[in-house]
């Protein structure tokens, strides 16, 4: 087990500097254009693939870093560049993690390379869980997967929404109900291979922020996938369902829910790190502006009213990063989340990004309110962090339930 450290080692610093260079030289200069276009920035993803940032190898290296700091460091730097473009680059990773954590070795080897493609022909992947009537309330999911034993195929029907890269992905990972009696424990994940008949894109959403990232509905109309596309395989699923049924009848549904919660706790710090990246970017622009913009014959930072805002912004960003790093280290080292530290880090970092980016607009005055400066885009982007991967209200619910042991609603 790695000791918790608040300092990156030399190798991590090298990776951080390399990522920062890419974020500063390639991502940031392209940010305004792709925000306006509201399209997937394929040329930037291609650049990232060429240098090795858009690849399973890079992602896996950070994911398995025992200090826990690899993923938060990488997310912070890329999202510092631009949130919409960075999400286009790391969105595939969300689907890949779904396969890495539940798939067999054969599934990992077959499907993950097809999620990324290669530098000459980049592909993206999508993770489809949310539905129009099942957002925060994941257990009310309706998309159904039924096993056709005669053909050894699964038949998937339903509508998913809000899928990052949904419909444009080469490979989709979809979560569907296989046993409606078991709530979220009756769900299973499936690979939908490229060009499978019956899968289509519904509406593409026009969004407030992260507009370079494609978000759309995905419709599954009698989508048939081979039995080998069930992540983890049928035998493992049958065993898991049998165990869940046993626990449910023995009154252990609460334990079953707790196990699912532990998985979410482990993935939330990564979203917190994205929020830290956006907050830091806006803070840096505001600090620079406050030091150079003069009013009343002196830089505006000479006023406590401005300087104290910057002091608060930086304090909140550093506090958010520490919470994120702690939770990420706990996740990688299997420490129990006794106070929902994963949710805590995501809650604090995402709320910090919203506050800090709003303060940055204020410090830039009229300029902050225009698209000539990046802080208004950063503020629009920051809004997503308190919504996806569990809203702030859901994070508070999880923290409060964990602290009190009460079924708080
Ligand atoms: C840009 C974007 C990208 C996304 N990408 C993906 C993706 O790739 N894959 C995917 O599966 N999903 C994705 N999502 C979906 C995202 O995870 C959901 O939007 C989120 O979980 C919230 O669900 P909802 O939108 O249905 O809101 P709802 O659950 O309807 O919530 C609405 C409001 O009610 C509040 N609320 C709900 N229940 C409670 C409660 N019990 N107590 C207090 N308040 C409550 C919420 O906090 C929120 O403020 C994405 C969403 C967006 C916007």
From TrEMBL:
Database matches in InterPro entries: Acyl-CoA_DH_CS, Acyl-CoA_Oxase/DH_mid-dom, Acyl-CoA_Oxase/DH_mid-dom_sf, AcylCo_DH-like_C, AcylCo_DH/oxidase_C, AcylCoA_DH/ox_N, AcylCoA_DH/ox_N_sf, AcylCoA_DH/oxidase_NM_dom_sf
Family to which this protein belongs: Belongs to the acyl-CoA dehydrogenase family.
Keywords of the record: FAD, Flavoprotein, Oxidoreductase
Domain Acyl-CoA dehydrogenase/oxidase C-terminal residues, every copy: 258-403
PROSITE patterns, alphabetized: ACYL_COA_DH_2 (PS00073)
Originating species: Streptomyces glomeratus
Keyword Cell wall biogenesis/degradation: no
Domain Acyl-CoA dehydrogenase/oxidase N-terminal span(s) in chain numbering: 9-115
Sequence ranges assigned to domain Acyl-CoA oxidase/dehydrogenase middle in this UniProt record: 126-223
Cofactors that this protein relies on: FAD
Protein name: Acyl-CoA dehydrogenase family protein
Pfam families, per the entry: Acyl-CoA_dh_1 (PF00441), Acyl-CoA_dh_M (PF02770), Acyl-CoA_dh_N (PF02771)
The keyword Glycoprotein is assigned to this record: no
């Amino acid at each position: 087990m790695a000791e918790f450290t608040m300092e990156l080692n030399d190798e991590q610093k090298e990776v951080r500097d390399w990522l920062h260079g890419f974020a500063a030289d390639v991502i940031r200069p392209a940010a305004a254009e792709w925000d306006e276009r509201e399209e997937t920035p394929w040329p930037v993803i291609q650049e990232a693939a060429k240098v090795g940032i858009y690849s399973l190898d890079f992602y896996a290296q950070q994911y398995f870093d025992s200090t826990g700091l690899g993923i938060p460091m990488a997310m912070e730097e890329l999202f510092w560049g631009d949130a919409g473009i960075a999400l286009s680059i790391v969105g595939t990773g969300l689907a890949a993690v779904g396969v890495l954590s539940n798939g067999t070795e054969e599934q990992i080897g077959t499907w993950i390379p097809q999620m990324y493609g290669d530098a000459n022909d980049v592909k993206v992947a999508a993770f489809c869980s949310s539905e129009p009537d099942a957002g925060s309330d994941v257990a009310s999911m309706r998309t159904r997967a039924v096993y056709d034993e005669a053909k050894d195929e699964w038949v998937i029907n339903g509508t998913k929404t809000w899928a990052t890269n949904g419909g444009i992905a080469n490979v989709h990972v979809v979560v569907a109900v296989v046993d409606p009696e078991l709530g979220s424990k009756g769900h299973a994940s499936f690979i939908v291979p490229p060009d499978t008949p019956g899968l289509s894109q519904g509406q593409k959403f026009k969004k407030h922020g992260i507009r370079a990232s494609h978000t759309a509905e995905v419709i599954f109309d009698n989508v048939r996938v081979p039995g080998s596309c069930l992540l983890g395989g049928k035998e493992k699923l049958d065993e898991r369902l049998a165990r869940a049924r046993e626990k449910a009848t023995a009154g252990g549904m609460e334990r079953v829910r707790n196990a699912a919660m532990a998985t979410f706790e482990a993935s939330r710090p990564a979203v917190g790190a994205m929020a830290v990246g956006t907050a830091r970017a806006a803070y840096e622009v505001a600090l620079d502006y406050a030091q150079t913009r003069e009013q009343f014959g002196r830089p505006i930072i000479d006023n406590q009213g401005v300087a104290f805002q910057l002091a608060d912004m930086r304090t909140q960003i550093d506090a958010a990063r520490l919470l994120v790093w702690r939770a990420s280290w706990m996740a990688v080292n299997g420490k129990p989340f006794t106070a929902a530290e994963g949710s805590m880090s995501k809650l604090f970092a995402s709320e910090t990004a919203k506050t800090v980016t709003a303060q940055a607009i204020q410090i830039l005055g009229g300029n902050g309110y225009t698209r000539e400066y990046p802080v208004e885009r950063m503020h629009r982007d920051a809004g997503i962090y308190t919504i996806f991967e569990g809203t702030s209200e859901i994070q508070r619910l999880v923290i409060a339930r964990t602290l009190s042991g009460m079924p708080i609603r």
